[in-house]
Design a protein that fits this description.
With about 400 residues, the protein is an alpha+beta fold. Helices cover about 30% and strands about 25% of the residues. The protein has 13 helices and 21 strands. The chain is elongated. The protein binds dihydroflavine-adenine dinucleotide.
Length: about 400
């Protein structure tokens, strides 16, 4: 009887955040559930998330924090399964958390505790890891041929996430299924990812400054984020940079305000009046890391100003230099790409899906949830919240 097709009500491909949440809800409705994953264990991205502490949601999870071809699409799911609902689930399992900056909630224990909670909640599901899908066919139901045998189910859920961190086995499987069922999709693009620069810019601005960080407001394509920015060996990173990377396209400039709480020109002019004998670098290093202050004062104006007393620098030069500190324009050569991206923008076009159920409008009982859908959150727990919310919604209907 080896060739017998095993029957389930629901098959979920992808044992990540969204897939596990969908399974939990489907089980509550007494549906039999099989979860298939090609990785060697479930929830690998949960385990590495939030620096090992899983930033599992954000207090401010609102639709505005998501990027999508249709910014309204995520509203329904986010309002039906909220950050408070996930906190209640954590409480039920006696898991506590702490709020870090900007509403980010982190598990007090290691991220593994969140995964264990989810696995405990869906222990009645069959979870089959190390399993490769060979093909999927649909007549009245879905039949999956895998290297571990054949499976059949009335409902099929694609919860295979996005292709960031390919060495963990991440794939663009969702887009392949979209192509098979003739569904529209938007190419995945690395997001929440550091920028790299041409060697010329690295030598000029960043060389030997790797590790320095500064609070900056970074803008691109009409969006801006005021958070920390970090200088790396290859360019820039840190929360402000990861956030803006989701809005950046090849060739775009970034505008960086290095003194977001200060009109730098006015500040420098007033210091020129009161502390004219102090060197520019000394004054600047009261607001910026010393070595960065020195570097910028020597390169931004194509003239070495750092050691000059403020009183000896022309007013016009100080005004221009101050303007540049508030509006430093840089053009990254690229991002670090899928290798280090936390998520990807793009995915299944939301036009193809019902926002109420996550079901494909043109294909009965086929669902897409989580990162594989064209909904991408900001840094700070928003992406897990989308995984929980979209998974929960689909779980009510599969
Ligand atoms: P997820 O990627 O979790 O799961 C997809 C599953 O599908 C995986 O188990 C994979 O193995 C499986 N799969 C893929 N292709 C398959 C195939 N062909 N066949 C079978 N199975 C397949 N977000 C956040 O909100 N807070 C945080 O703290 C972090 N931290 C973080 C750190 C790092 C380093 C990364 C890379 C990402 C984060 N994220 C995050 C983002 C978050 O991890 C991500 O948005 C969610 O895991 C998405 O959940 P999904 O269930 O959609 O995909």
């Amino acid at each position: 009887m080896e060739n017998k097709i095993k029957q389930y009500d629901v098959i979920i491909i992808g044992a990540g955040a969204a897939g596990l949440m969908c399974a939990i809800e489907a089980l509550k409705r007494d549906r039999s559930v099989l979860i298939i994953d090609k990785a060697n264990k479930a929830g690998k991205k949960i385990l590495i998330s939030g620096g090992g502490r899983c930033n599992f949601t954000n207090m401010n999870s609102e639709p505005e924090a998501y990027i999508s071809g249709n910014p309204h699409f995520c509203k329904s799911a986010l309002s039906r399964y909220t950050q408070w609902d996930f906190m209640a689930l954590m409480q039920k399992h006696h898991l506590s958390w702490n709020e870090k900056t900007l509403g980010q909630l982190f598990c007090d224990l290691r991220a593994g505790a969140v995964l264990e909670m989810l696995l405990d909640e869906c222990k009645q599901a069959d979870i089959q890891v190390n399993t490769y899908i060979k093909n999927i066919n649909h007549k009245d139901s879905y039949i999956l041929q895998t290297d571990a045998g054949a499976y059949q189910a009335e409902s099929l859920v694609i919860a295979t996430g996005g292709p960031s961190i390919p060495k963990m086995g991440a794939t663009d499987f969702g887009l392949k299924i979209a192509t098979q069922f003739k569904l529209g999709s938007i190419s995945f693009r690395p997001a929440l990812v550091p920028f790299i620069f041409h060697q010329y810019d690295i030598d000029k601005y960043f060389k030997d400054l790797s590790g320095l960080s500064v609070c900056a407001q970074v803008s691109c394509n009409g969006m801006n984020f005021k958070e920390m920015m970090l200088i790396t060996h290859q360019g820039i990173s840190g929360p402000a940079i990861l956030q803006i990377s989701s809005y950046w396209h090849q060739g775009d400039n970034l505008t960086i305000d290095l003194l977001p709480d200060l009109n730098a020109s006015e500040f420098l002019l007033s210091m020129r009046e009161t502390r004219g004998k102090a060197a520019l670098k000394t004054i600047l290093s009261e607001h910026l890391p010393k070595r960065l202050a020195q570097r910028l004062a020597n390169v931004l104006m194509h003239k070495k100003l750092a050691d000059l007393p403020l009183g000896e620098i022309k007013q016009k030069e100080l005004i221009n230099f101050g303007f540049m500190l508030n509006n430093w324009v840089l053009q990254p050569s690229d991002t670090q790409g899928l290798r280090t991206a936390e998520v990807c923008t793009g995915g299944i076009d939301t036009k193809e899906l019902s926002s109420k159920t996550m079901e494909v409008k043109s294909q009965p009982n086929l669902y897409f949830i989580g990162e594989t859908v064209d909904v991408t959150g900001w840094l700070g727990g928003y992406n897990f919240q989308w995984a929980w919310s979209s998974g929960w919604v689909a779980g009510q209907y599969v």
